[in-house]
Amino acid sequence: MIRAMMFDLDGTLINSLADLAAAGNHILEMHGYPTHPTDAFRLFVGDGMLNLTRRMLPKELVLEEDAVIRLKEELQAYYYDHSLERTAPYPGIEALLRFCKMHGLRLGVFTNKPDAAAHRVVAALFGADVFDAVIGHREGRPHKPDPTAVLEELEAFDIRPADCFYVGDSGVDMQTARNAGCIPVGVLWGFRGYEELVQNGAKFLMESPEKLKNLVASAIDEACPLRIK
User: Is the pTM here over 0.90, yes or no?
Assistant: First the structure.
């Protein structure tokens, strides 16, 4: 029986691609580097701001690590200030979350987005009373797919990992779910795609938030227990 759901943020709950791409291209342009089409950032994001910085820089460019870190800090600061200009929840997400809350599920967000930006975006788009925990990346803590933060929150909720759906749009999310012992649920409306989710162990693939709501309904119905192959 499912008692909790942990969600990735970018590409899962919210479509933030335009703001992430605009921030990345702003930093590139400031330093005289070539920019990228917005869609290219689908493969750049998901593993934290430092990896986003590395991926968006020209492949032939050789920089000292300190220089890359300074660019990452510029990107992080600019993105924080501009993270809500075109970002919005995916259609159907708010109804899904209301359904989950109505049925007493504990809800959390676990993202590689910097912690301050994660809290800002979640509070602005969903309010303060929807999620029981919002976990962004903090300096000195490992990024996903390390499951430590998920396991700490589930322990605080007194919920077993096996009773939690971990929902995300990327292979990293599926790895995180498996590393934590949660049930990996891949969503197909996000930044990555079917093949990556399957290759990284998704147990379920959801085409829409409405279909995810139906899966949750079956998973919390004791008269109709969820069967996982």
Answer: yes
